[in-house]
Amino acid sequence: MTNIVTRLSAGGGALADATFRALWLSRLVSAIGSAVIPVAMAFAVLEIGGGVGQLGTVLACGAVTEVVMLTVGGVWADRLPRRTVMLSTEAFSGLLAGGLGLLLLTGHAQVWHFGALAMASAVGKAFFRPATAGLVSELVPPRQLQSANALLSLCRSVPAVAGPAVAGLLVALAGPGWAYVIDGASFLFSALLLATIPVGRREPKERDSFWSELRGGAAEVTGRPWLWQNLLSHGLWNLGFSMLFVLGPTLVMVETSGSAAGTGAAGWAAVSTGLTVGGLAGGLLALRISCRRPLVVANLALATGAAPFLAMLADAPIWTVVVAAAVAAAGTDVLGALWDSTVQQLVPQEKMSRVTAYDWMVSLSITPLGYALAGPLAEHLGFTRALLVPVLLILLPSITLAFLPAIRSIERSADGTVTQHPVAPDQSLEYQTTTPGR
């Protein structure tokens, strides 16, 4: 790991800074530990007598709780030192995961323990995610924000490549309890790394009420056309792309006609691998890409999400669907780095976490709807016609946004600074050139 960090730092990127390096290592360690949990949780719940329905309930508990708590977490991440928020939630999650691991190892775990852990961990994520976006913009200068966000994306992608295989081996040899113990240890080690980051100083000022600050975050989103337009597009994209995880398995395991039909679990595993490898490639590409209009490029990159659906529509062989899935995942990670670095420069620092919370809330709340709609669409429209729905949901908003004045008005200079140029005589909030101080 030391050699990897040295090579990535050598180019003068964000990792050359010791404080960001500590943040990056904390995210990498935590992601490595968490990569084994999806497999371990499924085996653990079934092993102690739970059924498929109960496993679904556990997953739903976590998803719903995080969506509900995100805006709360965003407000508090703007109020408190963000490093403190992150450190506390990592330590909290570590104790919870380690405790459940001990319950499994001693034979005392029950299904409700998993539901409680999922809900408690989701509360932690709801505070952690908004705080992370704000802390990155505190630690990293504008010229390195894109590099920083791309590197954080790699923290998620790299463990995901080997995570399921390692998890299966760990569960088979040692049992799911040890997977949770390792995950807990990774959270605690992550917290120790975060503790090395200096606490940022905040200018003392009189605080509004919680509800006023919550409304202030929403006003920040609705008052900036480029921001709410992209959030709307991202929501439609998530609605469409999430259908891949229903329509894809349906093609390879249920459908009887088509080049990719009948390839079964091996076919879907290949597509899943393509998504993982594509995400890794996208993170590496985002480290290198340089563009004058970041949100134009970001939205065009997001349009690649239609690729796997178009491959299935074209009755392409399974290897083509795999490549298309990799392209889609790469485009998503490029979008992520460009989008995050733009938001971190154009949104005032004191409102960053609240805006990020709304961004996450849109994505996480709409994705389950896509899962739920995909099946009925395939039944009522037929499989082939159903594929057109996600294609339109992905392509239309992504391509349309690339031509909107508010999106094209945002430009990135050679030194990495992102500004918004006036697009109308109105000098209101949404049209002002904004580069918040750090």
From TrEMBL:
SUPFAM superfamilies referenced in this protein's UniProt entry, alphabetically: MFS general substrate transporter
Coiled coil: none
Provenance organism: Kitasatospora gansuensis
Stretches assigned to the Major facilitator superfamily (MFS) profile domain: 19-408
GO cellular component, one term: plasma membrane
Compositionally biased tracts (Polar residues): 429-438
Region (Disordered): 418-438
Name this polypeptide is given: MFS family permease
